[in-house]
């Protein structure tokens, strides 16, 4: 049995935000784009790394959104929002959608759905969703999204965020 490095060190208090951020970065997560059309028909959106599946019945996923996000109030308006699960090769697109608002869709040719949802082309999955619930949670909101329709390609590897960088999944052989 292998012991991880530093297991004999004392635990850090949660008031040490740098230690807390390092601990959170130890958990890999999928990365998504959350996008829709604005009132003028232009795409608006953002990247989110705190995304997870929640329920099959009803079909729900969740995304965590930082309090004070300038983009979220426009995205949560009534109607449909598109969730695109980034593919492994889309790290640059993910960074762009996390950057300055006016540059987020530069060199991206989004897919516009008739529902108003906007999707990133080439993603491993597209989910057309409506806001089911928004729960205040510290410095974020936990947003539950009800999936209305979807398409996916499980053969396309997803983008994974771990230790503050993008990673790839590796298939491992079963050990006998």
Automatic annotation (TrEMBL):
Record key words, sorted: Oxidoreductase
A GO molecular-function descriptor: FMN binding
Superkingdom of the organism of origin: Bacteria
UniProt key word Plastid: no
Domain Flavin reductase like: 24-168
PANTHER family noted in UniProt: FLAVIN REDUCTASE, FLAVIN-DEPENDENT MONOOXYGENASE, REDUCTASE SUBUNIT HSAB
Sequence similarity: Belongs to the non-flavoprotein flavin reductase family.
Protein name: Flavin reductase
Organism: Gordonia phthalatica
């Amino acid at each position: 049995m292998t012991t991880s490095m530093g297991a004999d060190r004392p635990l850090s208090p949660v008031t040490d935000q740098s230690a807390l951020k390092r601990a959170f970065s130890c958990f890999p997560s999928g990365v998504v784009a959350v996008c829709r059309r604005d009132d003028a028909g232009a795409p608006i959106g953002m990247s989110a790394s705190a995304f997870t599946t929640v329920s099959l019945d009803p079909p729900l996923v969740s995304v965590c959104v930082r309090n004070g996000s300038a983009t979220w109030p426009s995205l949560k308006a009534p109607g449909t929002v598109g969730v695109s699960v980034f593919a492994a090769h889309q790290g640059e697109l993910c960074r762009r959608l996390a950057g300055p608002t006016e540059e987020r869709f530069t060199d991206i040719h989004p897919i516009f759905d008739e529902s108003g949802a906007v999707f990133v082309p080439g993603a491993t999955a597209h989910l057309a969703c409506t806001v089911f619930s928004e729960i205040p949670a510290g410095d974020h909101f936990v947003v539950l999204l009800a999936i209305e329709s979807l398409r996916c390609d499980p053969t396309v590897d997803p983008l994974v965020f771990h230790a503050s960088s993008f990673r790839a999944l590796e298939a491992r052989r079963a050990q006998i």
